[in-house]
Design a protein that fits this description.
Strands 1, 4, 5, 6, 7, 8, 9, 10 and 11 form a nine-stranded mixed beta sheet that branches. A two-stranded antiparallel ribbon has the order 2-3. Strands 12-13 form a two-stranded antiparallel ribbon. It has six helices and 13 strands. The protein is α/β, with parallel strands linked by helices. The chain has a single domain, classed as Rossmann fold, CATH 3.40.50.2020. Bound molecules: uracil. The site of uracil has 10 residues, from α6.
Length: 212
């Protein structure tokens, strides 16, 4: 797995406000959107393009256009939904699929409760959005779902990641020949006994949308 940890003062500044327990949902949502747009810039570095020529008022200019089929952006419900706007701001023509996954807070196992994705993902670049890479259970299940539908190239964008989660994802897909990338805002220290990232930011879904 290719890992990119953002190292930019603007992202760190925004992350610091995000982590603060006094930051309320409206600010939290706004910051998540902004951070994802910045992370998306790095995550799409290898997005597939084709050469095109356009005519400027002065001369022809060689450029690039996004190749077809378009990339697929997959926010993992519920918390990944808070990342969608920030991502499609950068690639507005991407298709958006949805995966609803829930983590059992006792076993920390992830299971799928909803999905809306193309049946065939062969040749599609997939961008999975999930703010917290904690145990890795949710991300592994989501990636497996995409690989089972033919995807071979998946980039996960997370706000925070724990070393345990990264290790789990690497072990799950080791030697399987998939092209897996991770772009994250921060590599945090560890998980606590409840599976929360330390220092983290708490429950991302609750902080985005409240406790429901
Ligand atoms: N999910 C969250 O929302 N927060 C964590 O710290 C870990 C998993």
């Amino acid at each position: 797995m290719k890992i990119h940890v953002a190292n930019h003062p603007l992202i760190t500044h925004k992350l610091t406000v995000l982590r603060d327990e006094n930051t309320k949902s409206p600010t939290f949502r706004q910051l998540v959107e902004e951070i994802v747009t910045l992370l998306a810039y790095e995550a799409t570095r290898d997005v597939k393009t084709i050469p095109v020529t356009v005519k400027t008022p002065v001369a022809n200019a060689e450029g690039l256009a996004l190749a077809k089929p378009r990339p697929v952006v997959v926010p993992i419900l519920r918390a990944g939904l808070g990342m969608l706007e920030g991502m499609v701001k950068l690639i507005p023509t991407a298709e958006v699929g949805f995966l609803g996954m829930v983590r059992d807070e006792k076993t920390l196992q992830a299971s799928t409760y909803a999905n809306r994705l193309p049946e065939d993902l062969q040749g599609r670049q997939c961008y999975v959005l999930d703010p917290m890479l904690a145990t890795g259970g949710t991300l592994i299940a989501a990636m497996q779902y995409l690989f089972d539908r033919g995807a071979t190239e998946v980039t996960a964008i997370t706000i925070l990641s724990a070393p345990e989660g990264i290790k789990a994802v690497e072990e799950a897909f080791e030697g399987k020949g998939y092209n897996i990338n991770l772009v994250t805002g921060s590599l945090d220290t560890k998980l606590n006994e409840k599976g929360y990232i330390v220092p983290g930011l708490g429950d991302a879904g609750d902080r985005l949308y409240g406790v429901v």
